[in-house]
Amino acid sequence: MILRDGLRIADVHPYKDLDLLAIVLNSGDVLQARLSDLATLHKATDVQLHQWRLIGGGIGIHWEALDEDLSLRGFIRDSAQQEALRRLSPARRTRTKKTTA
User: Fold this and answer.
1) What kind and span of H or E run contains 79?
2) What is the pTM of this model?
3) Nearest 5°: phi and psi at 18?
4) Of 59, 61, 39, 60, nearest to 50 (Cα)?
5) DSSP per residue over 11-34, as a string?
6) What is the mean pLDDT of each run of 10 residues along the chain (101 residues)?
7) Nearest 10 degrees: CA dihedral of 33, 36, 42, 47?
């Protein structure tokens, strides 16, 4: 998908106070990650979080001061896993069963 469709990271917005890393794609979609799930970024200062650059033509993000690289492929994989878990959650299954019953 990344190579075939030319999907790339266009912008990155870290929000330490919200425990959020928003990854804006060139398609207009936004992927989200929790900073607390990314140990190095979670420990970083707000200034360090904002000192990132795109690498590989937008298929990754690099934080020089933190010696951290994250890939678009990893963000997509994690996003798909989170969505699958949300769909399988007991609360969602209960609502679905009640709706269809």
Assistant:
1) helix 72-88
2) 0.79
3) -105, 0
4) 61
5) EEEEEGGGTEEEEEETTS-EEEE-
6) 79 97 95 94 97 96 97 91 83 54 50
7) 50
